Amino acid sequence: MPSHPVSVVTGASRGIGRAIAMRLARTHRVVGVGRDRAALAQVVDDIAGSGGEAEALPLDVTDADAVARGLSGRAVDVLVHNAGVGVMKPLLELTPAEWQRMMDVNVNALYHVTRALLPGMVERGRGHVVIIGSIAGRSAFVGGAGYATTKHAVMGFAENLMLEVRDAGVKVSVVSPGSVATGFSGHGGPRASAQLRPEDVAAAVMSVVDTPPEVLVHRVEVRVLSPKRKG
Q1: Which end of the chain is less packed: N or C, by CB atoms within 10 Å?
Q2: pTM score > 0.85 for this model?
Q3: Is 134 helix (H, G, I), strand (E, B) or coil?
């Protein structure tokens, strides 16, 4: 019996990452990456309870050396970049540490993790890099001087990378959701009618991953149908 394809999901311990890991586990062996060991272990247990296969890989994706040790040389079919942080403040209220943290997690980690896994994809002539972006990656808003900047960078990274590796058989996609009901940037609580569920984003990721081998969906935006409707 052929083994399942392997997917790596960063930020897999909660929210969108957890939903993506659970959805991918229906057809893939999932490697969940994150810093919260207990939460990652719970995701692995939940996947096993649903009949899937998973591995927890506790890792700080901003640590280049740790990423290289943990991921280099792994044969991976799908890489989902989901780890992200957001501090929504005007620039004059944003501390240097908050700015640097967003740059490290949202941008620099893209390089570290992709650089560890992409050579194997190119060598095998197949693979898929999926990046969770944001509608903020093509828009502006008060308080977004840091966060939106990182998501604009994500779009540039993804499009350039796509052009570099498409002829090697490697796909690069960006899935950009609107507001999602998670604890991201400290905003938890009940889901508003104008918010997506993490499972909605996971479904969009799967629609991108499940395309035929010769088809690439490079950009997808995911929104609630009507923010004005109660749902």
Answers
A1: N
A2: yes
A3: coil
